[in-house]
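notes to self, project folder thing:

trying the whole complex as one job this time. last attempt i did each chain seperately and stitching them together was a nightmare. two parts in total, labels are on each line so i dont mix them up again. if this works i'll redo the older ones the same way
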Amino acid sequence: METLVAALTVFVLAVFVGFEIINKIPPTLHTPLMSGSNAISGVTLIGALLSAGAQHTELTTWLGFTAVVFATVNVVGGFMVTNRMLSMFRRK
Amino acid sequence: MSPTFINFAYLVAATLFIWGLKGLTHPRTAVQGNRYGALAMFIAVAATLLDQQILSFEWILLGVVIGGLIGAALAAKIAMTDMPQLVALFNGFGGGASVLVAGAALLEAGMPTTAAATNTFTVATAASGIIGAVTFSGSIIAFAKLQELMSGNPIMFPGQKILNALVALASVALGGWIVVDPAAVEPYWVMTAAAFLLGILIVIPIGGADMPVIIAFLNAASGLAAAATGFVLGNNILIVAGSLVGASGLILTQIMCKAMNRSLGNVFFGGVGGTVVVGAGNEIYEGKIKSTSAEEVAMLFDVAKRVVIVPGYGMAVAQAQHAVRDMANILESRGIEVEYAIHPVAGRMPGHMNVLLAEAEVPYEKLKEMVHINPTFDQTDVALVIGANDVVNPLAREDNSGPISGMPILDVDKARTVVVIKRSLSPGFAGIANPLFSADNTLMYFASAKEAILDLVAALKEG
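result (full assembly):
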């Protein structure tokens, strides 16, 4: 129960921080915001690394491995494409 | 490495994620912000690799190399017009990863060496599986529609809502089974399969015009799936990063709904978009349409002081943005003030049109939001509408029950002269006629966007 409350606290506070910051992001940058936050949601990679490396059973290793592939596509692709887009935004 | 050290590294990463998002509040700091995000991810991954639970690195290395190559290739090759598909695909991968990680965690929890599963763990596992699977299949359908692998029209059939409700109930019930009996691994995969089906059922009735909403929504869902996985693993960085993304996606979903004056429920169950009413509005156009030519528009520009360009998706489809930029440069060199009016749903995802124009090297200061540009139309000499339709339809301002009534629009009709570049008088996504085309101060320039702009550039150079 203790850990649940601690985790929920983190969750709720992070949601509020998210709302505060993201409301300030101008519409011009909404597409990069989506691809960039997409890359951030690839943070599931961390859970995938633990499953793929812990070697509990062959099945969990396979699940972990596939998850590592999925999440890395998300992370690497997300940050790279965001960088590509953002470097196009120029002033006069 | 001690868990305290790893958790400390996660705290640093979480701070950098937030710092990175803060960088996105201005185009000047955005590139740096994105780098902070990537650095945060690197720190989180590096710290995780020091965890004692990890015994072998070969599968990890192979997975990272394969995933990294696919991701890098997609990111480097994708055309900016195809960005919505790519984001949909990435959302799907994120959701899929959450399903697999939660499934693996459930399998591990069933083993005698690990601690007994708590209710928090099982509830989070069920949530992670359901949200992740809906995100995965929903995103794949969204991708297929946007990539035109399947028709973008809404697919509807009788009893659809009842079927959706039953499938949703079934997956939640199976999730409940896992909570009661954590050793039951099979129900997890059946639940995931049901949620997978649900994702497909939710997205197939959604039409092309509503895609921006559904992509933003799936973006939020991929974040929430990651956060749920964080509860499964008791991992703070997943919870923080996931909830940031969830918040971001929810805000964008709300902005998109507002821009179309629709509720989220209406988007999911309305099935609007893609239905074109044939022959609509011929009577309101009859005999009132004035068509124009490149030479005539060039003469209008000769006496103009301020021109506002209104790009629609038709411009992007015709790949006319570079030609438009060239034309704007000529106008500016003659001392004419040029700005761009960007409607929130001008592209196929939030902010899409801005990226397409940025790619054509239009400076971002010239891209004006609807609320900022609308008061300036009555001081505008020429409003040049390129391939946009519903977002400039004055019918939206009238209080009737039409499909777009109440939708915020760009008030181009208040400009001294409106020039509309369009192939024909065919209606837009909303399937209704546009009285702007037959207004007294409107000239119709019938041509494809690129052709028209190139002819205009030629006419400007001659004149």
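what i see at first glance: Helices of chain A lie at 2-22, 30-41, 45-54, 58-86.
need to look closer tmrw
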